## 1
Amino acid sequence: MSADEKKLSAAESLRKTRTYGKVRCHNPSCMGRIQPEPGADRVKCPTCGMEYRLYWVNPRLPRIRGPVWDVARKIREQKLAELESQMSKKSTKKGGK
């Protein structure tokens, strides 16, 4: 056997790194891996708090259908409130000088 015959194709090497039973958080600032309970219809990211609806392709392979809108809205409103309070603190500091 030559050295070329021992090398794996790109698909074969990626197959070894495949994680069944996990999904990746769709929040661009998070992108963490989440392992839902088998058969669960929702999963929450422990890192950023986003919650997603799930679809199970087979008993071992979950897929994200989309976010749970009530949770996403709540997280967005909290973040906006924090940003607004930071902006108001900065504007009061500038006005006081």
## 2
Amino acid sequence: MLLLIPAVVFAEKVKVRVFSTANITTAKVSFEKTSYALVADEVDTIASGLSAGDFVELTPFAKEVVVVVNGKKMGNFATVSFVSADEEAFLYISPKGCKQRSYEDDLIVTALGSKYLQMVNHVEFESYVAGVAQSEIYGKHSDIFRVQAIISRTWAMRNMEKHRADGYNFCDNVHCQAYHNRCIRDDIKQAAKESFGEVLVDAEGNLIETPFHSNSGGQTANSEDVWKSEIAYLRSVKDTFSYGMKQSVWTKEFSTEKWLGYFAKNHKLDINNDSVRNELVNFVQDERKAKIMGVPLTTIRKDWKLKSTFFSVFYYGDKVVLEGKGYGHGVGLSQEGAIRMVELGIDYKDILTHYYLGSQVVRLGGQEPVQEMEAPMYLAYNDSPTNANDDANDALDFIAKANQTADMPQKQELEPVEEKNVEPADKGRRTSDLASRMLSTKKQLEDNSSTNKNTETENGWVYEW
């Protein structure tokens, strides 16, 4: 296999803009144990030996950064850099109005005009990957974080120049990958270390796109049903592993008048037509669909702020209830599905190839030889090939039995209105508290690849919880 990717990228440092969504008017930087030097305009050392007990205050003024060290003003500078003295150095950043974070390695600070500061963490690539894994997924098992580290590393290597015009590689928010602190958990550090150099590639050795979401609701989506491009390895797959997890089901209620009015006003549908009205209030998705009456479900999800496009609509007279499954766009890896698969003892490589069809996990840098691609293990409720070997069949039986313990999404007791024509009716109140507690982190980013480049106006790649 010819790997069409650089083998040394993961050993270098990258620049990540932190607190990228905040308007930082002032910030305090402090230290613990390790020593830092403060360098102005990349050449002049204005303070050295900064460690525990020292602090630096930074504010913007006239397109420069005002620097105060331990209460003493040092001057105004175009660029201020905190340079670490050893490999394990880290510092604390406390911007006004934001929670304190800590980051490893170096920090570069500049002014954005006269009002705000820009802060960029210059950090070892693998430390960045570990920080992303900590920010992006929850769990207790090491392989959960190994899976996240691999897809995050793959994305980062594919999108290394995403913010080149801005002077850094990545930001820390939904536009790129969440990176909200240095990795402080030893188990996540170990998982990232064990996955060192591991990435996902296609049959030609190209790094693949690795979109992920919180929960598929039981079935992932095809890439073209969410975005513009049809990608061979981003196919819809059955995903019973996502059942019974935190984000597996949700509901939302709207008045029938408001729901129908939206389609009339925004999409010019004739809601006075009985067949149109009935379709809009009795829409069912046993399997994922892309549209309702020609309207993209992605548009409806955005306009109504829904957790996913995988929902059915039930009519109860003066109101409709949307019963939804999953959380996120549904393409690629379901994080909660992956969490369950790890808990069931499924190998991390099989988890990744279950969600990214036809892909392969390889290790860069000559750490391990690239193996020939083996026949894929067909996981629970996927069609099994006729030539599958006995081991694969045994694995399939085990996984299928394990999934029988999953909590399947349950129907509500109240039945939908049976009338053919939609007319107001006095129906009993339907509860809508099935939705699980929302996870704390969202993530979405646009594809910046040369082969599948989408602009923001073209509804580019969206990765999110």
## 3
Amino acid sequence: MSLGCPKALVDSERILTRLRSEGYSTAADYQDADVVVVNTCGFIDSARDESLAAIGEALAENGRVIVTGCLGATPDVIMARHAKVLSITGPHQYDAVMNAIHEAVPPPETPFLNLVPARAVKLTPSHYSYLKISEGCNNRCSFCIIPQLRGRLVSRPIADVLNEAEQLVETGTRELLVISQDTSAYGADIRYAKSAWRGREIPARVTELCKALAELGVWVRLHYIYPYPHVDELLQLMQDGRLLPYLDVPFQHASDKVLKAMRRPAAEARTLDRIIAWRKQVPDLTIRSTFIVGFPGETDADFEFLLEWLEAAELDRVGCFRYEAIDGATANALPGAVADEVKEERWHRLMAAQQTISARRLREKTGKVIRVIIDEIGDAGGVGRSTGDAPEIDGKVYVRGGSLAVGQITEARVLRSGPYDLWAEAI
């Protein structure tokens, strides 16, 4: 059972690959399984509750449960509710998980470990893949406990990342979604160390990584980009068509006072000016972001400023969270707690305002020709995504006409739009 974000999904794929390589197979239901592995999320209270409920269900239905993932970094929380689990490990502790599985269910006698690549099992459709470039995070945002759960930044050697990407493309991937906790910081912990790929030395730096990935001839989409100065270099790659014109930037707020209380990196950057400059350079750029309302000390004036900022920034895609006090987060000690009913009211106002902005942005695409990657085929045609849509979190494009297939990248003319989705005709 895999819960949580795409980074956890990649961890699950790696565990499944090792299981498959050692001769294990997966069961379709609890009754046919010798053991259940639950890869948990523990970022916010609702995610913890979901993970604890999943563990409880697995115990009730099967009885033999191994727990891993982010919630596993706080084993006391799990043991307080579910003392009968067989083993608890934290995130990306693959060897420890495998050892626990070996103890619970000894492996078959004839493994073929050397015949299986590093990541042969995928939990996403065959035509797109998440490419995790680092673990952990060096930021110390006051509302976040990711560094406590996943540790400090640990970047993968760039040759390892590129070899994995090459392997994914060779097996059918048409879109690579680059993920980490802080993609902009990739390589900082290893001093941007060079490694060899395709006969040349390449530094472990996000710009050079994107240039190399562009050589593979597939869509490359970046997630979790903090607006450090060198991000401007990526815009040139987008302008040249080597990188999808898409930036996922977790701004979290617009008020300097709130950003300082959040201890956000790049909080002092003139982000609105940079967004305007980015769009001048890449007119079809899609920017998505997330925000928190009801953070301790957020006043009515701070919230109104955020709404004004959103109207000026005209972000294409926005997600919003009501602030939750997370065990271990330093923001819990901040003064000025915001009442739940105020958080709720602000959340509804922000989402309503953003829906208007999103609908306006999408209306501008009517009549234009866009590129679409097809995710599924339905009765009325293809369902896919534009260059401005990441799977699961952004909108869809409903395409009629043409001879379409899953994984195909096609051109389509936009016929109409809604607040989040587009309807188009293949050309």
